[in-house]
Design brief:
A hairpin with a 2-residue loop joins strand 1 and strand 2 (12-16). By secondary structure, the protein is of the alpha+beta class. It has a five-stranded mixed beta sheet with strand order 1-2-3-5-4. The protein is globular. The chain contains five helices and five strands; from the N terminus they run E-E-H-H-H-H-E-H-E-E. Helix 1 (17-26) crosses helix 3 (53-67) and helix 4 crosses helix 5 (103-113). It is 44% helix and 20% strand. The longest helix has 15 residues, at 53-67. It has helices at residues 17-26, 31-38, 53-67, 74-87, 103-113; strands spanning 6-9, 12-16, 92-96, 117-122, 125-130. It has one domain (6-130). 25% of the residues are buried.
Length: 133
């Protein structure tokens, strides 16, 4: 698993989607991991809470590897990452993508996530900011 796939930046995190997806391909899957990867209803599971910022980043990476899958679209994977980040109380994050998303793809992410979030794209970076409750 690449150590540079997620980096801490103040109150937000940044990660490389391609590295994370690649690491998920190399992961040894258990049956339950396979279920989480293909069934959206089981897409996000949290088992413990992190106690410090570095631990939170590593924990997010561990959980992200459980929920993203090459078997679903990038839009679905990104929506799953939004749910995970929200559950982990991450307010802002940046996803470095291998390509720029189309407006249609961004619309699909909004449709899949179904909650208030701001997505801003700058070249191959997707900036995510959750709206205050």
């Amino acid at each position: 698993m690449p150590s540079t796939s997620i980096m801490e930046k103040n109150d937000s995190i940044s990660f490389n989607y391609s590295s994370l997806l690649s690491a998920s391909c190399k992961k040894k899957w258990r049956f339950v991991d396979a279920i989480y990867g293909v069934l959206p209803i089981f897409g996000v599971v949290t088992r413990k809470s992190a106690h410090n910022k570095l631990e939170a980043v590593e924990y997010f990476k561990e959980l992200a590897l459980q929920i993203i899958s090459t078997q679903v679209s990038d839009e679905m994977n990104i929506a799953r990452l939004l749910v995970l980040a929200e559950q982990q109380n991450i307010k802002n994050f940046t996803i470095q993508l291998p390509y720029s998303l189309s407006e249609h793809q961004i619309s699909l992410i909004y449709l899949e996530y179904r909650k208030s979030v701001t997505l801003h794209q700058d070249n191959d970076s997707l900036y995510v900011r959750f709206s205050p409750c």
